[in-house]
From TrEMBL:
This is NADH-ubiquinone oxidoreductase chain 3. SMART domains: GIYc, IENR1, IENR2. The keyword Electron transport applies. GO terms for cellular component: mitochondrial membrane; NADH dehydrogenase complex. It comes from Tuber brumale.
C-alpha cells in the first residue's frame, strides 16, 4: 500500500470518527446562540442591540485551527518521510494522542464553554414597560430654544397637558396593558410608532386598516374607502425652497388666499429640516390660508414647529406640498374632503414619525370639543373683552365708504333675539359694566344735564303700517324699532333720503 492511499483512507476514517463523536455529545450540551438570528459571537439581548465579540471565540477558534493544521500538514509529512513504516505511524499516533489528551483536558476545564446569555438569566429578567419610565417634556418651562440633538420623543404629552386626566389615562393604560388601547386613537398611533419608529421599517406596515382604526375613533362619522386611500397614496409632491421666491408657481399649486368662506385647495404640507430631515406634517382644506397664517406670515405662535422656524429660519427647511387631485374631489362635500386630507396626513405621520408633531393623530386640534358650559363662558368672555385703545384691531384706522356701505347692507333687517339681548345684558352687568365702581366727575354732570335739556324729539313714520309715532329722543325711537341710536344719528348726518331698512322715515322735531 502506498503512502498516498494510506493517507486518504486514514483521514477518511478519522473524519468519520470525529463527526460521530460530535453527533453523540452535541445534543447533551446545546448552545442556544447557534439557534439565534445572530452569528459570530453576537448575543441577543432583550431590548438591546448587538454586543461586541467575546475573546472566548478567538481562543477556541485558534485551538481548532491548530488542531486542523497539525493533522493536515504534519501527518502527511511524517508518513511520506518514513515511507509509511511502523515508526512513522507510531510517531503520528503519539502526536495525535498527546494532542487529543490536551484537547480533552481543555474541554474538561470548560475553556471552550460560553454561557448562553439567552437562557441563563431569562427567568430573572424584570421587563419594565417603556411607558412606565419617567418622561420629560420636550420644552421645560421658560425654554424657548430647542436642542436638536435631544432624543426623539413619541409621547402625546406636552407641557400644557401635564395635568390633563386624558393623558394620565393614556399613560396608565400603557403601563397596565388595559383594553383602552383598542379604543383610544392616540395609544394606537403611539404604539405603532414605537414598534416602527422610522420610514424604512414603517412603510411596509402602514395600511388602510391601521389608519382607519385611528381616525374612525377620533373623528365622528369618519368615512374613507380603501380605493380612495390608493389614490391618495399615489399623489406626487411638489417641493419648494423656503422662503418662497417664485410666488407665481407657489400660488398655482396651493391656490390663492380664500376669503369669505370660499373653498381653497386641499392637501397636506410637510416642513423638512435640511440638516437632520426632522419634519412636521399638517393638512388643510385651504392650504393657502393655513400656510400664510400659520407658518409663512410675519407672526408665528409658540408650538414646537413655530419655535423651530423662529430659531433656524425658513431657509433651513424644504416645503413639500401634496395636493388632492381636482377631478377626485370636484363632486365631494367639504366634510368628505376634510376626511381625505386627514387620512393622507395620518398616513405620512405613521410613515415618517414627524419629530415636530406633538400629537401623532391627524386632526387633533380640530377634533377637540368643549362642553356647553365652556362654550357659554367663552362667549360671555368674548363679549366682555376690553377692546379699547390700542387693543382695538381698528385702532388708528378708518373704514372706507365702500366698506361702510357693505356693513350697513349686511345689517339691514337684522334683529337681536331676546336670548341674545339677555346675554348682552348679562355680559355688561355687575363688574363687567364700564362704570362699575365709578362715579361721574363734577365736570361731566353739567354736560349730562345739558345734553338731556337739549335733546330733540323725533317723528318716526312706518311705511308698512302707515303709522306715525312721536318719541322724546332718538334713543327712545331706536329702542322702539329695535335698532341702535347711532343708526338714526347717521341717518340725519348723511342726509339719507331712502327709508331706513326700506321701512322707516325719520324727522327731527324742533
Amino acid at each position: 500500500m502506498s503512502s498516498t492511499i494510506f493517507f486518504f483512507i486514514f483521514i477518511l476514517f478519522l473524519a468519520f470518527a470525529l463527526l460521530s463523536l460530535n453527533l453523540l455529545l452535541a445534543p447533551h450540551s446545546p448552545y442556544n446562540e447557534k439557534d439565534s438570528s445572530f452569528e459570530c459571537g453576537f448575543s441577543s439581548f432583550l431590548y438591546q442591540n448587538r454586543s461586541q465579540f467575546s475573546i472566548s471565540f478567538f481562543l477556541f477558534a485558534l485551538l481548532f485551527l491548530i488542531f486542523d493544521l497539525e493533522i493536515v500538514l504534519i501527518y502527511p509529512y511524517v508518513v511520506s518521510a518514513y515511507n509509511n513504516s511502523i515508526y512513522g505511524l507510531v510517531i503520528v499516533l503519539v502526536f495525535l494522542a498527546i494532542l487529543t489528551a490536551g484537547f480533552v483536558y481543555e474541554l474538561g476545564r470548560g475553556v471552550l464553554k460560553i454561557p448562553s446569555r439567552q437562557s441563563n438569566n431569562l427567568n430573572n429578567i424584570s421587563i419594565v414597560p417603556i411607558a412606565s419610565l419617567p418622561r420629560t417634556s420636550f420644552l421645560p418651562k421658560g425654554l424657548t430654544k430647542l436642542n436638536l440633538t435631544q432624543k426623539r420623543l413619541y409621547s402625546t404629552k406636552s407641557e400644557k397637558y401635564q395635568q390633563d386626566e386624558f393623558f394620565k389615562q393614556i399613560a396608565r393604560s400603557l403601563r397596565e396593558g388595559s383594553s383602552l388601547e383598542s379604543n383610544n386613537p392616540f395609544i394606537i398611533a403611539n404604539s405603532f410608532l414605537k414598534r416602527y419608529p422610522n420610514f424604512e421599517i414603517a412603510k411596509d406596515n402602514v395600511n388602510f386598516e391601521i389608519i382607519h382604526s385611528i381616525l374612525s375613533k377620533h373623528i365622528p362619522n369618519f368615512n374613507v374607502t380603501e380605493s380612495e386611500f390608493k389614490i391618495l397614496r399615489n399623489i406626487i409632491p411638489k417641493r419648494f425652497e423656503l422662503p418662497i421666491r417664485e410666488k407665481g408657481d407657489f400660488i398655482e399649486i396651493v391656490g390663492k388666499y380664500a376669503r369669505n368662506g370660499k373653498s381653497g385647495r386641499p392637501g397636506v404640507y410637510v416642513f423638512i429640516n435640511k440638516k437632520n430631515e426632522f419634519c412636521y406634517i399638517g393638512s388643510s382644506v385651504q392650504l393657502a390660508n393655513r400656510l400664510r397664517k400659520g407658518y409663512l406670515g410675519s407672526t408665528l405662535g409658540n408650538r414646537k414647529i413655530n419655535l423651530v422656524l423662529k430659531e433656524l429660519g425658513l431657509n433651513s427647511f424644504y416645503l413639500d406640498i401634496y395636493i388632492l387631485p381636482e377631478n377626485f374631489i370636484n363632486a365631494l362635500e367639504t366634510d368628505k374632503i376634510k376626511h381625505l386630507t386627514l387620512f393622507l396626513e395620518q398616513y405620512f405621520i405613521l410613515c415618517y414619525n414627524p419629530v415636530y408633531n406633538i400629537l401623532k393623530v391627524a386632526g387633533s386640534s380640530a377634533g377637540r370639543t368643549f362642553s356647553p358650559e365652556s362654550i357659554e363662558k367663552m362667549k360671555i368672555a368674548a363679549l366682555a373683552r376690553d377692546l379699547n385703545g390700542e387693543n382695538n384691531p381698528m385702532f388708528g384706522k378708518k373704514h372706507s365708504k365702500e366698506t361702510l356701505a357693505k356693513i350697513s347692507a349686511s345689517r339691514k333687517g337684522r334683529k337681536l333675539s331676546d336670548e341674545c339681548k339677555a346675554k348682552l345684558r348679562k355680559a355688561l352687568s355687575g363688574k363687567n359694566h364700564p362704570l362699575f365702581g365709578k362715579t361721574h366727575s363734577e365736570e361731566s354732570k353739567p354736560k349730562n344735564l345739558h345734553s338731556q335739556s337739549t335733546k330733540k324729539g323725533i317723528e318716526v313714520t312706518d311705511l308698512e303700517t302707515k303709522n306715525t309715532t312721536l318719541y322724546p329722543s332718538i334713543r327712545a325711537a331706536a329702542r322702539a324699532i329695535s335698532c341702535r341710536d347711532v343708526a338714526i344719528h347717521n341717518y340725519f348726518k348723511q342726509n339719507q333720503q331712502k327709508p331706513y331698512r326700506g321701512r322707516y322715515v325719520f324727522k327731527l322735531l324742533k
